[in-house]
Structure formats: C-alpha cells, structure tokens
Amino acid sequence: MPRIPDAVELTQTLVRMDTINPPGNEAPAARYLGRLLEEAGLQVSYPRLAENRTGLIAVVPGSTSKLPLVFTGHLDTVPVGDAPWDFPPHGGQISNGRLWGRGASDMKSGVAAMAVTALHLAAEPQGQGGVVFVFTTGEETGCEGALQMQASGALPRAAGALVVAEPTGNLPFLGHKGALWLECTARGKSAHGSMPDLGVNAIFKAARAATSLEHFFALAPAHPQLGKPTVNVGTFIGGTKINMVPDSARFQVDLRSVPGMAHAPLLEQIEGHMGPDIEVTCLVDLPAVLTPAADAWIIRVFDVLERIQGHRPKPEYVNYFTDASVLTSALKKPPTLIMGPGEPSQAHKTNEYCDVEKIVKSVVFYRAIAEEWLASS
Description:
alpha+beta; 24% strand; Alpha-Beta Plaits; single chain; 377 residues
C-alpha cells in the first residue's frame, strides 16, 4: 500500500497546478490524483469534457448492496485577477498557519481532503466499498463537467447521500440558491451619430430593459433559509463607434433563485417584463438545492460532528451554486451536505488562503462521515 500523503501537502501540490478556467487544463490534476487512487486499489475513470479537460471518478473497492455515498469536488479555479498577490498565486506557500494560492479555499483543499479520505478507506483490510469520489471539471463556468458526466452516463445510477467539498469553513451547509444566467440582446438600426432620428438606438433599448430589472424581486417573498432571490446585471456591451447609432447591444443577467422557484416560469416572467424588443438566451440553468435538517442521514451526520467537536453544529445555507445543482438531480435526489475546509469569504479573492488546521480537520470529518455510512450498511 503506497504511503498516504498528508492532505496539506496534497493541497499544495494541487494549488501549484494551474487549472484556471478558462481554459481549465484540469487533466494533469485529475491524472495525478487518479494515479494515487489507482495505486491504492480504487477503480478509476476519466470522463472527458474537452482537450486537456478530464475529470475523475474513483470507486473504493469492496461490495455492498447499499447505494453509494458520493463525495465530490471540482478541479478548476477562477483566474488570478489583475491585482498583485502577496504570495505567488500558484506557489502553495504556507505562512501564519494558512496555505496561500488560487484554489486554496475554492476548492483544492477540499479535493485533497477527499482524496486522502479515499486512500484511508481503501487501506481498510477488506476494503470499504460503497463510497465513490467524483472530481469534476468546469464547475466555475456553469458545472460543465458535471453536466458532461451526467450526459455520458459516467456517474453512478443513484446515490444514497452526497457530500460536496465547497468552502464552508468545515460548517455543514444544507442548501444553496439556484442560478439562471441570461444573455439579453436588443436590435436596432444604424445611422450617422449626427442624425439619430434616421436610426434606432439599440443601447437605449437594452439600457431600459436592464435598468427595469433592478427591483424585479422587490415583492418576492423571502425563503425561510435562503432569503430572497436576487438579480444582477453583470455585463453590458453595445456600439462600435461614438458617431454611429448602435444597431445592437447586449447585457448579461445573473438571477439567483430560491428552492421552490422553477426556472421555466421565471424565464417567461423575465421575457414578459422586458418586452418583445429583447431577445433572451439562457446561458446557465442550475436549480437550487435544499436538504431538510430533519433528514435521517443529516441527523446522523450532525451526530458524528457533535461527537468529534463536542458541540452540535447548526445547519447553514449559502448563496453560491455548486455541482450539487447537477449531481443531486442526476443521482436521484439524495440528501446533500455541502462542507469543505475552505473559507467561503476567500473564494475568488486576491490572496486566497485556507487555514491549514481546517484542512487537517476536514479529513477527520470526511472519514467519520464515510465510516458512519458504511457502518449503517
């Protein structure tokens, strides 16, 4: 049996791999983890999204009649950004008890902790079958890797429970908002800028439509756990020259929905609100995720966490989306726990870091959750 690496060291190794998306280039990270897991006896496959963009699915050896517990995390990161960093963004440097670098919190620390958990489970004398690890590509640009895995049939047919390693500071999150991303286009008629009456200004059309969305959810009721849905116009592009009437303009909208809010009727409402002058294209459609705190498995997980920590945690909820939007549905809606060592406040930030102690602790949590699952088989 190969030596099981330290989760902190493995996080450093992953942070030092540039998997910025776009373009992604997750394949080296997937292959590196895959070799570790395959050498330990796990059954490994590499679902392919595109060139140099492979994910990883690893099955712990052993047999069980129970649906598997699935652990998941994504391998890609967002860009470094233009602001200077205090530490090299792909250096994986440790200073003041923190591991610094792009992806340290979101979410290579969680992926590393899950991989180490897989190695520990595989080291059990008889193996600990019934646990699957799914590491995806393309999460940061709309869960593309998870969608590809679903479409290709690479995923297990169903799961008994799902753990997502997104950054939560090792707190248990039971749900998140959905995301509906739209591109909205206005068409006009070009003319000379000195004779605007001879044209139709597409920017004016688009601007009116975009500003009309500012208070779209003002009267929407708040969800008990996740609050109100939100809307943000994130980009606006139009025109080619200052002295031309623009014949096209477009803007992109980020809608965050709450559980129980179906996206198809929401899209129809948005289209009706902005009117016939605006063409709407859906870019990302990811539903909200919510597991009741009274779910039997969630109660058992909280029992495990209370036993380890000495106090019972409270369920938390978050606004960002995760691969659970795809995987929970693809795996036949198992109870879903979002929990990882990274800090939610550090995701996508300059000088991103993760507390080293939380990386170590997350392995303890993941192993205990897996062992409870297997013991209850």
